[in-house]
Design brief:
With about 250 residues, this protein is of the alpha/beta class. The chain is about 40% helix and about 10% strand. The protein has a 6-stranded parallel beta sheet with strand order 3-2-1-4-5-6, sandwiched between helices. A two-stranded antiparallel sheet has the order 7-8. The longest helix has 20 residues. It is elongated and about 60 Å long. About 30% of the residues are buried.
Length: about 250
């Protein structure tokens, strides 16, 4: 292809190009052109393809003109194949890639965002690793298993400037009513926070975790919400953290 970057196009050349464009078959989908072209869509990697992912989390991305699901990941080969089939049948192609290791998904430079539908203990490790790779993240609830990991995640999201969305119970009419995937996509397109970002998810989970720690300690505790530490209670402060088996962790 010749380089036209330094050449002045004549009116004849422009009209000729326009005429060639009209020669395309009429059945070419409109989504191929303009702002909804595949190259302009938000590319999504789905991690964890269990029932929640299949029946609740995949369809909103498939049916969004702003998104393209390009990868699915699960350690269960049966679930993985069902997910791949679902995506390929929807797009009528065979482009969806499959993975059994989530690290391979977040390593792809051409993936903009992930949907984390894994089991609870993987919510922060996978989401945090994705954020550190500069990916936008939508994550199933509950977000965290400890107060300390929630603070690490929320701080990293802010540092990297990515979009984060934690799922909440959408039947709660006291909350804004933009659906969670819609809100996630909206925030990515408009470069703004979601209505339930990592900070919201962290603070919400902290309420239950504080109560659990108080029950374990069997005592009345004094909490400093700014420092996110218990006042004068080292034993309770140790409960702000959970341990991960090697080689997994959060602080790498």
């Amino acid at each position: 292809m010749s380089d036209l970057s330094d050449k002045k196009l004549t009116r004849r050349q422009i009209l000729g190009a326009a005429g060639a464009a009209w020669a395309f078959p009429a059945i070419v989908p409109s989504s191929v052109f303009g702002e909804n072209a595949p190259s302009n869509r938000i590319t999504i990697g789905m991690i964890g393809m269990g029932r929640q992912a299949i029946y609740a989390n995949t369809n909103p991305f498939l049916y969004s003109e702003d998104c393209q699901v390009v990868a699915v990941c699960d350690v269960d080969k049966w679930r993985l194949e069902n997910a791949r089939k679902k995506v390929d049948e929807f797009y009528k192609n065979t482009d969806c890639k499959t993975y059994t290791d989530w690290r391979e998904v977040i390593a792809r430079d051409d993936i903009d965002a992930i949907m984390n539908s894994t089991t609870d203990q993987w919510h922060v490790p996978i989401s945090l690793a994705a954020v550190r790779k500069g990916k936008h993240v939508s994550c199933e609830k509950p977000l965290t298993l400890s107060i300390a990991e929630g603070r690490i995640l929320a701080d990293e999201v802010k540092k990297k400037g990515v979009v984060f969305r934690i799922k909440y119970k959408e039947s709660d009419r006291r909350l804004p009513q933009r659906m969670d995937k819609e809100d996630f996509i909206y925030a990515i397109k408009n470069k703004c926070n979601t209505m339930a970002d990592a900070e919201v998810g962290h603070r919400t989970c902290s309420l239950g975790q504080l109560g659990h720690i108080a029950i374990q300690r069997g005592a009345k505790l004094n909490w400093d919400p700014k420092a996110e530490r218990f006042i004068d209670d080292d034993k309770a402060n140790k409960m702000l953290y959970i341990s991960y088996r090697k080689p997994w962790g959060l602080l790498k």
